[in-house]
Design brief:
Elements lengths: L4 E5 L2 H14 L7 E4 L11 H13 L5 E7 L6 H12 L7 E6 L4 H5 L10 H8 L7 H12 L9 H9 L6
Length: 173
């Protein structure tokens, strides 16, 4: 059976990060389908019905047989606990073709991996790195600055990034 991979991310900037960077750094995953779970200001995956509808769409409309859901480690708890709680709350525990990946702190930490160890990095760390003070649409500004830097993410600098890349069956670059 051919692998068809779907990825659900929290917000539109996370989706753009996949489309504009990850797919270029890892060209063998070009066929991956990435969707955002959020619209508007709420960029967290909190609605079980909406999430399961998106999973069903990835499977039925896009033929995906592996689904990855990327969530932020917002409450600084244990990654394993966060994953189990999320899977239980969203009714994912029995879906063997769906894997929740807890991103260390937030997806911006994956961007920060281009320069340093970033398991606990936040948007604030990336803002400081780029010398930004404004909070206006900061996710989009951070993404544009990262893309302009032409740096590649480094999964040797971030455990959750490494986990995700290895789950896809790829080698860290």
């Amino acid at each position: 059976m051919n692998r068809k991979i779907g990825v659900i991310v929290e917000g539109p900037t996370d989706k753009d990060f996949f489309e504009k960077h990850i797919k270029k750094q890892y060209p063998s995953i070009k066929g991956i389908k990435v969707i955002s779970s959020a619209t508007g200001r709420n960029q967290k995956i909190r609605n079980k019905i909406k999430l399961n509808s998106r999973i069903k769409d990835l499977k039925d409309k896009n033929g995906c047989n592996e689904i990855y859901i990327l969530i932020d480690l917002d409450n600084k708890s244990c990654v394993v606990t966060e994953k189990k709680d999320f899977d239980s709350k969203m009714g994912l525990s029995s879906q063997s073709d769906v894997t929740t990946v807890v991103v260390s702190t937030e997806l911006e930490a994956w961007m920060m991996s281009a320069w340093q160890k970033s398991d606990n990095a936040t948007k604030e760390d990336l803002k400081k790195y780029f010398g930004l003070k404004s909070n206006t649409n900061i996710e989009e500004v951070l993404l544009q600055r990262f893309l302009a830097s032409k740096q590649n993410i480094d999964c040797n600098n971030n455990e959750s990034l490494r986990y995700f890349i290895e789950k896809l069956g790829l080698e860290c670059k």
